[in-house]
Design a protein that fits this description.
heterodimer; A: alpha/beta; Rossmann fold; 2 domains; seven-stranded mixed β-sheet; five-stranded mixed β-sheet; 11 helices; 14 strands; 17% strand; globular; B: alpha/beta; two-stranded antiparallel ribbon; 9% strand
Chain lengths: 325, 365
């Protein structure tokens, strides 16, 4: 099976969907001539031409709103945000217009857009460029939120997102763009709202997503090899819709839970998860639900301290050992 | 039957000087007698509908906001009467006039105001959120200026699909200072989108006059983007049509966007919650009503043209009142949505379970 980088897997998904559906159009800053700020869209302009691969000015509210309007007529825009952090200048377009237009029209209008781009810390770009808004986005009914961690999932989930008739927010991670993994060349889909057990285990369930899940997997391996502890890792893959069945099945198996998220803790995804787990599987729990988040301050620039702020392997290992104690 | 009209019946002898210049414009000269009557009837129906809705609001049948269009009728009717098959309309929250002008029936509109399930948005949108995509009417948007990028997007969609049409993107004079509006101007000009940004300038952004809110001429800002622009008077339906026809042709035929300012006036407050006594004089309203009321102006022209006679004027008015009353009866008799309807029309997938591809929970209760 071909081995692709995460960015290449996303590019392959875009290329396949651009080929499959003439209504798909890729829009964003530097997606064409520049080949993408993170080279995700490299080569697409040459292959599909400027009608399908559209370089936009730095004007997020303008081109996201425009994409929403075009989607109401049946165009299927896939809009790149150079950083998800820039969503704040288009907040009204995304979370008033895209989220609500179907509802407020009594179901008469669909908004089949995808907004994709990286949402992560860890690259020393400071607080304004390091937002992780999956909790904010998922707080809006009408919106779907996807957080792929692996190249395989990134391709399969993006293809599903592009075919989805609801607005899908697709949150990538710049620190994963170079990660490699097996990616089939065929036209497979990973459905939204299906979590996956990325590693089987018996003593503790780590529930995570995105890069925090990749780090959690590494920690689970360390725990097996160096501590002889068996940890299961559940990758949510989607935040909304949310696959609680897979989470709860794992909790019933291990009876201990650690949630690991690259989110500030207050009102984060982990808070919702912890509530639902205790609400629906209280009797299965042998210990309080543990949670590891990004340390609660604006994202710091200072490179070594930013590593410490995020859920790194050291912090995850410590939290896992505490949860297992 | 409701009480006698003020603007139509009582002001019938108001000194309105008919202008004939715009009547001779090709887009107006080609109108049949019946078409002219129907344009007049549309304006009367909008006004009677809104007057009836105001009474319903005062009777506490309607919640939230109610932004009335009374005084501005010739703008929506003039513009929307020019729509062809591939022409589209989007507007802000003062949206009743446009909805009726594109052909929506009064019953689902009044029912929407009443929050009833028979409303055009099933009671989920309210006054500010009327929609009828089947009539190319895309709302009805509550955030000032927020709909303007969507209008650019509708134009983008038309061009992308190779359709020869235009999107009239309405906004109030209060919207012109919003960033999203300027971003839309830039994109439209940059990409030659078939969109006409229509500033309905009623003089006040809520309680702040144009002089206190906006620097320079509103539509002239188009020059900075290399777009054409223009200004017209919005009380004269013939003028609105003659003016907009040119801009529509440029958009449809040459994909040339433009910014137009149509000067108009609202008789009521910003919304009915606005006591309307802090920022303008009553005499200003009365002066406009006396000299520029759009229904009176057009009525005078059609009387002079012998298209209308007083009996027909009265008949149209009586019918519009009756229709508005019936819409209120319909709304009153209709059921409210239920709590079970709350989570319908949120996700396409949730409403089409047999075609759902995703797993997991979409709602969290």
């Amino acid at each position: 099976m071909p081995v692709l980088q995460y960015r290449e897997a996303i590019r392959q998904a875009l290329a396949e969907e651009l080929t499959r559906d003439p209504n798909v159009v890729v829009l964003g800053e530097e997606v064409g001539q520049f080949h993408g700020a993170y080279k995700v869209t490299e080569g697409l302009l040459a292959k599909f031409g400027p009608k399908r691969i559209v370089d936009t000015p730095i004007s997020e509210a303008g081109f996201i709103g425009m994409g929403i309007g075009a989607s109401m007529l049946g165009v299927r825009p896939v809009i790149e945000l150079m950083f998800w952090s820039f969503y704040s200048v288009a907040f009204d377009q995304i979370l008033n217009n895209a989220a609500n237009v179907r509802y407020m029209s009594g179901g008469q209008i669909n908004c089949p857009i995808v907004i994709r781009g990286p949402a992560n810390g860890g690259t020393n770009v400071g607080a304004t460029h390091s937002h992780t808004p999956e909790n904010v986005l998922a707080n809006h009914p009408g919106i779907k939120v996807v957080v792929p961690a692996t190249p395989y999932d990134a391709k399969g989930l993006l293809k599903s997102a592009i075919r989805d008739n609801d607005p899908v927010m697709f949150l990538e991670n710049t620190m994963l763009y170079g990660d490699k993994g097996e990616v089939p060349e065929d036209d497979y889909l990973v459905p939204l709202g299906k979590a996956e057990v990325k590693r089987e285990g018996t003593e503790l369930t780590i529930v995570s997503y995105g890069r925090a899940m990749i780090l959690s997997l590494a920690v689970a391996n360390t725990l097996q090899q160096e501590h002889n502890r068996s940890v299961e890792v559940v990758d949510l893959r989607s935040i909304r819709p949310l696959d609680m069945d897979t989470v709860l099945a794992s909790v019933r198996k291990t009876h201990r839970v650690l949630i690991v998220e690259e989110q500030k803790p207050f009102c984060g995804v982990g808070a919702q998860l912890a509530y639902m787990i205790q609400s629906e599987a209280f009797d299965e729990l042998d210990a309080p639900i543990a949670r590891l988040s990004t340390i609660d301050s604006p994202s710091i620039y200072s490179p070594p301290v930013e590593v410490a702020q995020l859920p790194n392997t050291e912090r995850i290992l410590k939290a896992a050992l505490e949860a297992l104690a | 039957m409701s009480k006698k009209s003020s603007a139509i019946a009582d002001d019938r002898n108001a000194s309105v000087a008919p202008k004939t210049g715009y009547a001779a414009a090709p887009v107006n000269a080609s109108l049949s007698i019946d078409q002219k009557i129907e344009l007049y009837r549309l304006m009367v129906r909008i006004r009677r509908f809104e007057e009836r809705s105001l009474r319903a609001y005062q009777a506490k049948k309607i919640g939230g906001f109610l932004h009335l269009y009374i005084g501005q009728e010739a703008v929506a009717v003039g513009c929307c009467s020019l729509m062809g098959k591939n022409d589209h309309v989007i507007t802000a929250y003062r949206d009743h006039g446009h909805a009726i002008a594109v052909g929506m029936e009064l019953n689902p509109l009044m029912a929407e105001l009443y929050g009833k399930v028979t409303g055009c948005s099933k009671g989920k949108g309210g006054s500010m959120h009327f929609f009828d995509p089947a009539r190319n009417y895309w709302g009805g948007h509550g955030i000032v200026g927020g709909q303007v990028p969507l209008g650019a997007g509708l134009a983008y969609g038309l061009k992308f699909k190779g359709l020869k049409g235009a999107c009239m993107t309405f906004m109030g004079d209060g919207a012109v200072n919003q960033g999203a509006v300027h971003e839309s101007y830039n994109l439209a000009a940059l990409w030659d989108l078939p969109v006409i940004f229509v500033i309905e300038n009623n003089g006040y952004s809520m309680g702040t006059s144009q002089a206190r809110s906006s620097a320079g001429d509103l539509a002239r800002r188009a020059e900075a983007y290399g777009m054409s622009w223009g200004v017209c008077e919005g009380h004269d339906l013939y003028e609105v049509r003659a003016f907009m026809a040119k801009h529509l042709e440029e958009a449809r035929n040459n994909c040339k966007p433009s910014v137009v300012e149509i000067r108009t006036y609202r008789y009521r407050g910003h919304s009915v919650a606005d006591p309307d006594n802090t920022y303008r004089a009553k005499s200003e309203i009365e002066e406009y009503r006396r000299t520029k009321d759009p229904i009176q102006v057009f009525q005078a022209k059609l009387l002079e043209e012998k298209v209308l006679d007083l009996a027909l004027v009265e008949k149209i008015d009586v019918e519009a009142r009756a229709e508005s009353d019936l819409s209120a009866d319909f709304a009153e008799a209709s059921p409210f949505p239920t709590a079970d309807d709350l989570q319908k029309d949120v996700y396409w997938e949730a409403d089409n379970p047999s075609e759902r591809k995703s797993g997991g929970r979409l709602f969290f209760n």
